[in-house]
Design a protein that fits this description.
This protein is an alpha+beta fold and 495 residues long. It contains 15 helices and 23 strands. The protein has two domains: 16-227, Alpha-Beta Complex (Outer Surface Protein A, domain 3); 239-472, 3-Layer(aba) Sandwich (NADH Oxidase). The termini are far apart.
Length: 495
């Protein structure tokens, strides 16, 4: 796409009546210690007195002409400086309009430049492989997660231009989208500012394809990482309780899933405090146990591992401060939400028949969900593949998340927090298994479709997010790459 005007055309600032501004959604004005402030997410900004008349106007879209209609020149300079500050902090949305005053694109940003400072792009551009398009509030939204600008497209001509760009840079230009050349060039400039589009190199290829910083990244990893962290966008990435008025929180303990319940033995934690392996020894001895004994794990071992790793230690009802009921378990969980559920696919375990079970952490019991099926066989085969084909788990623990339990409180960072919870549970299971002499191997992936088929659970309500292979440890088990610390002498000398 050669998006801009013909070569040699004069560059100029965007006219003041073509750019409009408005306070972003969620931004509100407040008074503190007798002074006016803006609040938006985690940001605050004291409004200068000279900007107050303009600030009051910005509850609706206003052009620079309208904002400065009754202002002296020096006041207008102050207004433009305040616009730049508030747009850069994410308080302000911007809108580019065509010559008839119709909105072409809208900009949400943290950092970056004002639309009025854009220069029309005059070279071909292509869409970044990290670009994400979606529908939000009835508008097409396009962004490159990790960049500081998000664009929405209220005009059909801009949407046409974007779709033609997706087809390839040679397929699109302003003319066939019905846009004036200068407008098409400004839209291309906004796309480049947002990182959604990139100027093509001399070989007509995207420069990001040759960038060693970007080669390791896939688009979904970029989106998950940057959107769950604050700093390069203005969207929530913290506890907002955004569903508090729309639906009740999920309970701390899941409702029973079966009437066939196997109560498990309770284990003496006080005795274990004096007889168990030390934490230091467990940490130093931990390894991926992929060699299982011919004899299977037994029910008492499985019960102890679950009791020490995942039982409910106490429950607390919701209060006006917490807003949801909470629990405590041996592993940590963000906000004491404990969204994770444990499902056991039992292939071989003394004292327990083959099949699928759900662990009730409150009762410390197993709920029998069904006999082995093609789906549970796929789960076991997939887990074996995840160990490099070294072992078929005697017991496969599938970790699932009740997503609404955690996303009811956290917005933007809910799934990232779930994965942190999985890591905490992995380490707890692993260290307890090490202390017990049980073979334990957390796995890097699993078959979410097979889990949904085996359990009958809606994957948008509850889906697998982790797997752990368990078994009785073989006496001659290989310990992977675990060796004694060859640097212990050096560490001891430094200590």
């Amino acid at each position: 796409m050669s998006a801009g005007p013909a070569a040699g055309a004069a560059a100029h600032r965007v006219p003041a009546d073509r750019i409009a501004y408005r306070w972003a959604d969620g931004v509100r004005r407040t008074e503190y210690d007798g002074e006016p402030w803006l609040l938006g997410g985690a940001e605050v900004w004291r409004i200068p007195a000279a900007f107050l008349p303009a600030a009051d106007l910005l509850v609706d879209w206003r052009t620079e002409q309208e904002l400065g209609a009754n202002a002296a020149f020096d006041q207008l300079v102050g207004i433009l400086a305040a616009l730049r500050r508030t747009a850069g902090a994410g308080f302000l949305d911007q809108e580019l309009r065509d010559a008839e005053g119709r909105p072409l694109i809208r900009v949400q940003q943290v950092g970056g430049t004002l639309l009025r400072d854009l220069r029309a792009v005059r070279e071909p551009v292509g869409i970044s492989r990290f670009a994400v398009m979606r529908v939000e509030d009835g508008l097409l939204v396009v962004e490159r997660p990790g960049e500081h600008v998000v664009l929405s497209c209220p005009d059909a001509r801009v949407r046409t231009l974007l779709m033609r760009l997706v087809e390839g840079p040679a397929a699109a230009c302003g003319d066939d989208a019905g846009l004036a050349a200068e407008d098409a060039g400004l839209i291309a400039a906004a796309l480049v500012e947002a990182g959604v589009a990139l100027p093509l190199g001399a070989t007509a290829g995207l420069p990001e394809a040759e960038d060693p910083r970007l080669r390791p990244w896939k688009w979904h990893d970029v989106a998950a990482h940057f959107r769950s962290r604050r700093g390069r966008h203005r969207f929530p990435a913290h506890a907002t309780y955004h569903l508090v008025r729309q639906q009740p929180p999920e309970p701390a303990v899941k409702a029973p899933m079966s009437t066939r319940v196997i109560d498990l033995p309770v284990h003496d934690i006080e005795r274990l405090r004096t007889t168990d392996m030390t934490l230091t020894e467990a940490v130093e001895q931990r390894f991926a146990g992929r060699d299982h004994d011919e004899r299977p794990l037994d029910l008492d071992q499985l019960s102890e591992l679950l009791f020490r790793s995942a039982r409910v230690r106490w429950l607390a009802d919701r209060t006006d401060e917490t807003l949801y009921d909470q629990s405590s378990r041996p592993y940590p969980s963000g906000g004491a939400t404990y969204d994770l559920e444990l499902y056991l696919t039992v292939d071989r375990c003394d004292g327990l028949e083959r099949g699928l079970y759900h662990y009730d952490p409150d009762r410390h019991a197993l709920e029998h969900l069904g006999q082995p099926t093609a789906a549970t066989d796929r789960m076991l085969a997939d887990a074996m593949g995840a160990t490099g084909g070294q072992v078929r788990p005697q017991v496969l623990v599938t970790v699932a998340s009740r997503f609404a339990r955690i996303s009811w409180k956290y917005e933007g960072m809910a799934y990232a927090t779930t994965l942190r919870n999985v890591g905490a549970l992995y380490q707890t299971l692993w260290l307890v298994a090490t202390a017990m002499g049980v073979a334990c191997c957390p796995l890097g992936g699993g078959d979410a479709s097979a889990f949904a088929e085996a359990t009958g659970l809606d994957p948008y309500v509850e889906s697998s997010v982790g797997e752990v292979a368990l078994g009785r440890l073989a006496a001659d088990a290989r310990r992977g790459n675990r060796r004694d610390d060859a640097r212990q002498g050096a560490w001891a000398a430094r200590a």
